[in-house]
Design a protein that fits this description.
Elements lengths: L3 H7 L5 E4 L12 E3 H17 L7 E6 L4 H11 L3 E6 L4 H11 L3 E4 L1 H9 L10 E4 L8 E2 L19 E6 L9 E5 H12 L13 E5 L5 H13 L3 E5 L4 H10 L4 E4 L1 H7 L15 E4 L6 H10 L6 E8 L3 E8 L14 E5 L4 E6 L13 E7 L5 E2 L3 H7 E2 L2 E10 L5 E6 L9 H11 L5 E5 L7 E6 L6 H7 L10 E4 L13 H9 L12
Parallel strand pairs: 1-11, 3-4, 3-5, 4-8, 5-6, 6-7, 10-11, 10-12, 12-13, 13-14, 24-25
Antiparallel strand pairs: 1-2, 8-9, 9-19, 14-15, 15-16, 16-22, 17-18, 18-21, 20-21, 21-22, 23-24
């Protein structure tokens, strides 16, 4: 990864990279780059990281505004033999500081604005790193990046494939995220290499425009960077804006043939598909990970593209394991009843992963049709959590990894996800209820069903203005299990992770005064 951009450029890859805004790195003011220019930027960045004191075996913490230069910074650190830890700027102070304490980084690369925000909350991230470099403006206790720029980069330094390569964190929907370390063997050889083939229909082609709208601090994008550059599409376009209007204008200049995005991004951009001249008219492949995408959104994008053979590839997995299952949606597969859901996750990745369902109490395997904890076995599994070895060991059992999810398998081996164990109430799937309500109430932006212990499930209706149609809700739930009186909230009041997932326990605490949910939470 330290020489990824150099290698791809030297092989003659003609890929152009388009950005919706310039990188935050110094010396990168353009919004279009070829691979040779990006290789030079990685080498320059490696030089000033070394001048700031980063060396072989050191840890680099990266916390900045969301952009793909997270991966350029990571590649620059890897080039030095260091280990980058990519931490989302979306983390609040109570989450970021414990992660920095676990990391003990030699160097922190961040912004003055982020330091100011956390210092105002009573904590100073710079105190938890050997040295801090800021990218945007001078800050007390930190080195301005211009003070270390211009140093010549050392030559690339290789490491053992089993050694730590990169550290990412989990989404953090239930509290402080875990720090997940991956090696070259797991995230590159097992995951990125698997994606680097030109599979029929779902593989990236040389004439593709591949667009990504993601949280670039997470492991999925690091893996995507390795694979997509090797596949050398004609164009890559990177979206960072959360504004549908800004994204619409950018995508009109770079209409995607392949579009990968966070579920939250798909949800925010869904309204664009109702326009006659929307930018997804020639998209042949949609890709979603992190969380299921609700049926109305699936139908909107697949129905809006002009490609009759368009496919939606939905992946389910975890930062610790990479993808575990894939499911493919087409227009035809979505023609069922309006109450269909997207929780059927498909089958385990052939020759790569195995899954079993076990009783949460005894860990004994359960037959098809019985819900239980989902365990996974894969060669791509992370070597461990950074700073939480006991927590890791508690989730590993005889080579099987406890995902912490409740699901059920049918007789053919397909997996249906019911809930996270910590949120699961017996005899109920909150996730399936959310799908049904979003399907029946088209004015909803999102529905979140929470499970306060000993009480009926609490539906939170996310709408544009925080209001809702009570009569329509009553009609939509007449045949559903008993629910508490719904609560409506505007979208901008919902606590979310950097990947757009709802922080369910934070929302539950906002609404009820307690973050305790129905499950045990033993495997979060």
């Amino acid at each position: 990864m330290g020489t990824l951009f150099e290698t791809c450029a030297s092989r003659g890859a003609a890929t152009l990279v388009h950005l919706d805004r310039p990188f935050d790195l110094p010396g990168a003011g353009a919004v279009t780059h070829d691979l040779a220019q990006l290789a030079a930027l990685v080498e320059e960045t490696s030089g000033w990281l070394a001048a700031a004191g980063l060396g072989r075996g050191d840890r680099l913490a990266i916390v900045k505004d969301n952009h793909w230069d997270y991966d350029l910074l990571a590649c620059a650190a890897i080039r030095l033999g260091a280990v980058p830890a990519q931490l989302s700027a979306h983390l609040d102070t109570g989450q970021l500081i414990p992660l920095l304490v676990r990391l003990t980084p030699r160097l922190l690369v961040t912004t003055a604005a982020l330091l100011e925000r956390h210092r105002a909350a009573g904590e100073d991230p710079a105190l938890h790193a050997g040295r801090t470099v800021v990218l945007d403006a001078p800050a007390e206790g930190a080195v301005a990046v211009d003070e270390v720029r211009g140093a010549r980069a050392p030559g690339p330094r290789r490491r053992d494939p089993g050694a730590m390569l990169v550290i990412n964190h989990t989404s953090g929907t239930t509290g402080v995220p875990k720090l997940v370390g991956h090696s070259t063997r797991t995230i590159i050889h097992k995951l990125a290499r698997f994606e680097s083939f030109r599979y029929p229909r779902i593989g990236v082609r040389r004439d593709d425009t591949v667009v990504n709208a993601s949280s670039y601090a997470h492991g999925r994008t690091f893996c995507w960077t390795a694979s997509v550059l090797c596949l050398a599409p004609r164009e890559i376009a990177v979206v960072t804006s959360r504004s549908p209007q800004e994204t619409d204008l950018f995508l009109r200049d770079h209409p995607p043939t392949v579009f990968e995005a966070l579920p939250d991004v798909f949800n925010r951009l869904r309204s664009l598909t109702g326009r006659l001249d929307h930018p997804f008219r020639r998209t042949r492949l949609f890709v979603s990970t992190y969380d299921a995408v609700h049926p109305p959104t699936l139908r909107a994008f697949l129905g809006g593209t002009g490609r009759r053979d368009a496919v939606w590839m939905q992946g389910w997995g975890q930062t610790e394991t990479g993808p575990l299952t894939f499911r493919f949606h087409t227009r035809r597969s979505l023609r069922g009843g309006r109450d269909g859901d997207a929780r059927d996750l498909g089958h385990p990745v052939p020759f790569k992963t195995r899954l079993r369902v076990v009783d949460p109490g005894t860990m004994a395997p359960l037959p098809a049709g019985r819900p239980g904890l989902l365990l996974a076995r894969t060669g791509a599994r992370s070597p461990g959590y950074v700073g939480e070895e006991e927590r890791w060991q508690a989730k590993e059992r005889d080579g099987w990894w406890n995902t912490g999810d409740i699901g059920v398998r049918d007789r053919l081996g397909a997996v249906r996800l019911l809930d996270r164990e910590v949120d699961h109430a017996p005899g109920l799937s909150c996730l399936a209820l959310e799908d049904v309500l979003e399907d029946r109430l088209p004015w909803l932006l999102e529905c979140v069903v929470l499970t306060p212990p000993g009480r009926d499930p609490l539906p939170v209706l996310v709408t544009a203005d925080g209001g809702f149609d009570a009569e329509a809700f009553k009609r939509a739930t007449v045949d559903l299990p008993p629910l508490a009186e719904p609560v409506a909230r505007a979208d901008d009041t919902i606590p979310r992770t950097g990947t757009g997932k709802v922080r369910r326990h934070a929302l539950l605490e906002q609404l009820t005064g307690s973050s305790e949910a129905a499950g045990t939470g033993r495997w979060t």
